[in-house]
Design a protein that fits this description.
The complex is a heterodimer. By secondary structure, chain A is mostly helical. In chain A, 87% of the residues lie in helices and 0% in strands. Chain A contains eight helices and no strands. The mean pLDDT of chain A is 90. Helices cover 33% and strands 30% of the residues of chain B. Chain B is built from four helices and eight strands.
């Protein structure tokens, strides 16, 4: 065997080894995430006795995200109204503007854009908060004092996120419809009566609004859990916390978009 | 004090969120108008329903008086069997007729109900036999072409070209 083919062979072996390591590391991460998820769910029982813990976190992730969600919803509605009108008037059916705006918001944009904004606004602050707690060794101290950090820190934040997400998504969609109405009816001059009657004739409570709410609940689970896990697993250093915050946004956004495709495909076939 | 202040804000947030869900359900969808009005069922058979869909409106004189509840196929008469949910506050004569109409040029299809002259009214479970099918554009075009072709001189005109 020549030296050249030997080095090629060892290079191939190394690549295989790297691949194995990569797969194993990700599998371990997935297993760990699943175990933590189950742990959070199991340890949530005691929150029923102390609902204050959850409501304080709802203030933190819900109320403080309210303004950004409201304003974004309004502007997305404005833009949908303008762009939708541009396309619809070519086919002489600008009365369907309300239906177009409502369906795209309720079925798709409301849950997805809210989840992305929620990951950026609330998810990052959850990760940074928990990461800094870890860096300040507050979590180790809790462990020493026999206070379960999963129960005391993760569970209330998790349920607060799960509760806040659907409410925020509904506010986003409602504001978007109002935005579309402002642009379509007040500025462009689409007939107000047909704007609303098209919406009422074309939107179904369960198939459209209900599925949108289911989506936003699933996204609430995903984004909040990713943020908490990244914070809990962050290296307790300034770099570690900043990396964890970045990973929260990347992983949460990608999983929201991926899950959205899966959910939409499932709901379509039903 | 700080605590109860927080609770007020959280309560307000939940209230606004719930109001938004309610707005979506009531204002943009048809939860109220559909489910809480009493209705009676009628059955109508059509040779062809075209693009008629469940939940399409039944209109009389342009006013919505009911909705299409279900459309199925009857393999005895090979016709479409349309179940209508009519609002209870409206009654129509037994010999009323139905036809499938289109709103606008390319709009949704709906059922037009024309009242007859009999004194007895339709009651739940009655069927309406006097129906007119949807206009199928392809049939219309082929009828037009055949009638054109059958005109005297049509063959001559083709030959001349």
């Amino acid at each position: 065997m020549t030296t050249e083919s030997k080095s090629l062979f060892s290079g191939l072996l190394n690549a295989l080894g790297d691949l194995g390591f990569f797969i194993r590391r990700n599998l371990t991460g997935l297993g760990y995430a699943a175990r933590m998820f189950a742990l959070v769910l199991v340890r949530s029982g005691s929150l029923l006795k102390r609902p204050r813990l959850v409501s304080d976190q709802v203030l933190f992730v819900g109320n403080y995200s309210f303004v950004i969600i409201t304003v974004s919803g309004l502007f997305v509605g404005f833009v949908l109204g303008l762009q939708g009108y541009y396309t619809l008037q070519r086919y002489g059916s600008s009365e369907a503007l309300g239906l177009l705006v409502t369906l795209s918001l309720v079925r798709e944009l409301g849950p997805v854009v809210t989840a992305l904004l929620f990951a950026g606004r609330a998810g990052t602050s959850l990760t940074a908060e928990i990461g800094l707690m870890k860096a300040g060794e507050q979590i180790s101290v809790m462990d020493m004092m026999a206070v379960d950090p999963v129960q005391r820190i993760l569970a209330p934040r998790f349920w607060a996120g799960v509760m806040a997400m659907p409410l925020l998504a509904a506010v986003f969609s409602a504001m978007g419809i109002i935005g579309g109405w402002i642009v379509g009816v007040l500025m462009i001059g689409v007939d107000s009566g047909s704007f609303w009657s098209q919406i009422q004739g074309g939107v179904d409570v369960w198939r459209d609004v209900g599925n949108g709410i289911i989506k936003s609940i699933v996204f609430g689970f995903t984004v909040t859990f990713v943020a908490l896990l990244q914070g809990f697993e962050a290296q307790p250093t300034p770099e570690g916390v900043s990396q964890a915050t970045t990973r929260t946004v990347v992983i949460a956004s990608l999983s929201v978009l991926g899950l959205d495709f899966i959910l939409t495909a499932l709901m379509f076939s039903l | 004090m700080q605590r109860s202040k927080n609770d007020v804000w959280v309560g307000l947030f939940v209230l606004v969120g719930a109001a938004a869900i309610l707005f979506l359900a009531l204002q943009s969808a048809n939860l109220l108008s559909l489910n809480f009005q009493k209705s009676y069922r009628l059955i109508a058979k059509f040779d062809n329903v075209g693009g008629l869909k469940p939940k399409a409106a039944v209109r009389s004189a342009g006013v919505v008086v009911g909705r299409v509840e279900a459309i199925s196929f009857d393999d005895k008469s090979f016709q479409a069997r349309v179940t209508l949910a009519m609002e209870s506050r409206y009654a129509f004569p037994k010999d009323s007729s139905l036809k499938i109409l289109t709103s606008g040029l390319l709009g949704e299809q709906y059922l037009g109900l024309e009242p007859g002259a009999q004194e007895q009214s339709l009651v739940a479970g009655d069927s309406i036999s006097n129906t007119q099918s949807a206009v199928v554009l392809e049939n219309l075009i082929s009828q037009f072409l055949y009638s054109k072709a059958a005109e005297p001189g049509a063959a001559q005109a083709i030959k001349d070209k």
